[in-house]
Write a structure and sequence with these properties.
single chain, mainly alpha, Arc Repressor Mutant, subunit A, 4 helices, transposase activity, Homeodomain-like_sf, Transposase_8, DNA binding, Transposase
Length: about 80
């Protein structure tokens, strides 16, 4: 098991999520890559794409960034 102070980079997290979506079990990913099951489930929630009607995809993280950008543009527009 990985020490608590280790930070994984974004590319690593996304790679683990891709492995999960390709059929790997969370338990296997946890033992192979040194992240806890709970951590991997958080990554899955954050980086798993949502398929939109127009065929594009958006992750919850992308959605949060778009919301933040929209709020900023709305504030600029009010000024």
């Amino acid at each position: 098991m990985c020490p608590l102070w280790v930070n994984f980079n974004e590319d690593f997290k996304k790679m683990v999520v891709e492995l999960y979506h390709s059929g790997s079990a969370v338990k296997d990913l946890s033992s192979e890559h040194g992240a806890s099951d709970i951590t991997i489930y958080k990554w899955i929630k954050k980086y798993s794409p949502v398929h939109l009607e127009d065929g594009s995809t958006l992750t919850p993280d992308d959605y949060a960034k778009l919301q933040k950008q929209l709020r900023r543009l709305q504030e600029e527009n009010e000024i």
